Amino acid sequence: MDAKRKDARNRIFVGFMFVGMGIGWLFDQLVPGLFIGMGVGFIVQALLEDRSRERTTGGDRETAPDQTATTARETPTPAGVSEPSRATGAPPDIETVWARITAHQGEVFQLAKGAGFTYEVVGNAVVPSTAKVKIQKSQFAKALEHVPFKKVTDVPDSVFGPSYVYAILMDPRIRDGDW
Q1: Which residue stretches belong to region Disordered (predicted)?
Q2: 62 found inside a domain
Q3: Which stretches of the chain score pLDDT less than 50?
Q4: Are residues 78 and 43 part of one domain?
């Protein structure tokens, strides 16, 4: 979340607090007015943060980007990581996919709605450039059990950061023809 949006949400809270205090003062009920204003301020602030988070992660109504324009590049399999036969139809294990994810960090990926982002792999987590979150390797492992996805909402609800997980796992560089 950028600093301007966070500052605006904080000012909304303070604004509601002062409105409540003013109404309380007007009716000679300063403390109850203050608490009512603070309560409304917290609620509005939480709603705005949820709305902002939905925009950051893409919301629920995203559909698959056109995958035909991008060609898959072969990603070498790191030593010691086995890749299953493509004839089996089963996706490779998380270590193979994680090696691909690591190999393509810093490159531009597309969210389903078209916004571009890059990511950095820090330990066992992906850190997208457009959100202040860390998406753990375990989230990709959970999602990998359900690939391929047609749209973001196909990513299981238990997976954190579904828009980013979808964008990364469904990219031809990560799929490498496996799903």
Answers
A1: 53-91
A2: no
A3: 1, 58-87
A4: no
